[in-house]
């Protein structure tokens, strides 16, 4: 912290490029997509800045054209994990000792680089090809949100470092030192957001920590480009080590290390719970208690009151449930609609859904693209088949799928006859929305039902023009969502505006993109310095008159 300068202004959010027809942005992004698609890159494990080829490889394929391979990646195993831990710990001393302003400059530079055409196009194109996101979805994730994470985290880190003890009486100087954790942080990311893969290792690194970065196997491709961005920005070798590979083959040896100081995880609830169990089994081995931060699954709701406008509700449901094929932890996946508004809402919903185009994201007219891989395709279509067979549900839109070229699943709307039908309760993580129609007079009862239907509590929305209805929902659903929306879809949280995270089975709610997250990556040391220390042990009360 020596010579720390605290003059970082509150950043604006990174502006979203529209990629309108004829724009330079659109032309240059399309050109980069073509370029990346025409190549097949080899992706190494990266430890201490060195590229390691293990020979055990996996393929990076394009989900909407799954025979097309754009990368072959080397998988890390126990040996590489141990090398990565060693490299991280070696880098730790100088990184932790680096003045805060110097570390900050690296991440502010990463943000600025990502706003230049080369990096923006590259990271967006990698996300479009590797994760089947359309240009807008890639832009708001891989470019804007990641730029925002870098810049806002710096701003929040500054706030944390500035927070000092309230008082130092005469002769005393009290201060707080925000030390990085004593060990390394294991950053484990999901496939669905490139920005999350970028944030998980860099948020702890900004606070002086070293990290092991484990990308999801279906998003190694964009993860590798992120590593190149970190390098270009000046992240020193060994500070972030890249160890793709199978979850358990990488995860178990990492979590056995006595130097595991933190886990920064985003992904599914069962994986997180297993990791927590492994940490519990190893608890006596660790040098310190690992900080465990996990943002996990969701079963995000939309509750509609009879005072809401069906056109607004239908729009929110389409965007909230089907953008990025419903593969957002925040995606609307269950909705409660009052009987008096159902016919009109259904008509509008179906009319609009008929206009939704699905296909290759390289064709910018498509709103929806492919789901990530065969496993996701099988799970999601399993739920659709279940609904087709059930007498308690009816598919009112979509329900078809085809994995012959890409993993395509139509936007599907299920009408549930029972409020606790399987697809009202479980996370599907695909383009499937289940609707339950309730009697208007049972609004309050429906709010309680919504609160008690699923184990998750990530996002949710209430649509109502009646303020009393809003207030009641706000109250009854207080613990049902970590991000609660009034008259808005439950997706699309913006860094600096709606810090993101949920409770219950949805995670530890440490709010990515806020000081609440960064504070988990420091271990404060309180320092009291006495300028005039006492030289006599006796207190005045002991005097004999
Ligand atoms: P996933 O749980 O299958 O995988 C997440 C990561 O964990 C991957 O990198 C995977 O390789 C790794 N992993 C698996 N087993 C492991 C083990 N034993 N040890 C260590 N690592 C292991 O999740 P996914 O399919 O990539 O992503 C979708 C899930 O992520 C959904 O449940 C979604 O709701 C959730 N998600 C949550 C948020 C949020 O902020 N709450 C954001 C995005 C995604």
Secondary-structure class: alpha/beta
- Ligands (ions, cofactors included): nicotinamide-adenine-dinucleotide
CATH class of the largest domain: Alpha Beta
Beta content: 15-25%
Number of helices: 16
What's the name of the CATH homologous superfamily of the largest domain?
Answer: Aldehyde Dehydrogenase, Chain A, domain 1
Give the mean pLDDT: 97
Task: Please identify, by name, the CATH architecture of the largest domain.
Answer: 3-Layer(aba) Sandwich
Tertiary shape: globular
Secondary structure: helix percent: 25-40%
Biggest sheet details? 7 strands, mixed
Strand order of the largest sheet: 14-17-18-13-12-20-21
Ends distance: 49 Å
Gyration radius from CA atoms, angstroms: 25 Å
Q: Can you put this structure into words, describing what you see?
A:
This protein has 545 residues and is of the alpha/beta class. The chain has 2 domains: 3-296 and 507-528, Aldehyde Dehydrogenase, Chain A, domain 1, CATH 3.40.605; 300-486, Aldehyde Dehydrogenase, Chain A, domain 2 (3-Layer(aba) Sandwich). It is 39% helix and 21% strand. The chain has helices at residues 24-37, 78-97, 100-114, 117-131, 135-162, 194-206, 220-233, 247-256, 269-281, 310-322, 339-353, 374-389, 422-425, 443-453, 467-476, 515-518, and strands at residues 41-43, 45-47, 50-52, 57-62, 65-74, 172-180, 184-188, 210-214, 240-242, 260-266, 291-295, 300-304, 332-338, 393-397, 401-402, 408-409, 412-416, 432-438, 456-457, 459-463, 483-486, 503-504, 522-530. Strands 14-17-18-13-12-20-21 form a 7-stranded mixed sheet, sandwiched between helices. Strands 9-8-7-10-11 form a 5-stranded parallel sheet, with helices on both faces. Strand 4 (57-62) and strand 5 form a beta hairpin. It is globular, with a radius of gyration of 25 Å. Bound molecules: nicotinamide-adenine-dinucleotide. Nicotinamide-adenine-dinucleotide (NAD) binds next to helix 8 and helix 9.
